[in-house]
Amino acid sequence: ATDAAGNTSALSQPIDPPIGHGGTKDAATVEVTNVRQHWDHTATIKGTADPSSEIKLYDGTSSVGSATTGADGKWSFQTSDLSGKSHAFTAEQVDTTGHVVGTSSGEAIIGSGLSNTLTGT
Prior knowledge:
- The termini are far apart.
- This protein has strands at residues 31-37, 43-48, 54-59, 62-68, 74-78, 87-94, 100-103, 108-110.
- The protein is built from no helices and 8 strands.
- The protein has a domain at 30-100: Immunoglobulins (Immunoglobulin-like, Sandwich), CATH 2.60.40.
- The chain is elongated, with a radius of gyration of 20 Å.
C-alpha cells in the first residue's frame, strides 16, 4: 500500500490458500469412483473432479503419476505393476500454480492378491 505522501508499506505475508480458492467454501471436489484390477497386475483408477483440472495420484505417500480431467470432470489413471503388496491410492486436485485445491475423501485399496484382511470401524 502507498499513502498520499508516497510512503510504501512492507509486503504482506502470503495467503494460503491463494486468493480465488476461498478455503473450504470454494474447495475443489476430487473423488476416486472406481478401481479395476487387470490380469497383468495393473489397475485402472477412475474418478471425478472439476473439469479440465490436473489430478495427482499417490500410493500412500509416494507419488505415482497424474491425470487430467476432461470437460465432463472425469479422469482415469493406469497403474504400473501392483503385484506383491497392497496399495492405498488417493488423489489431489492442483491448480495451475501447483497448489492443492482438493483431496479425495477416501482411498482406493488394492490387495496383494493373497489373503488380505481389511478391518475398519
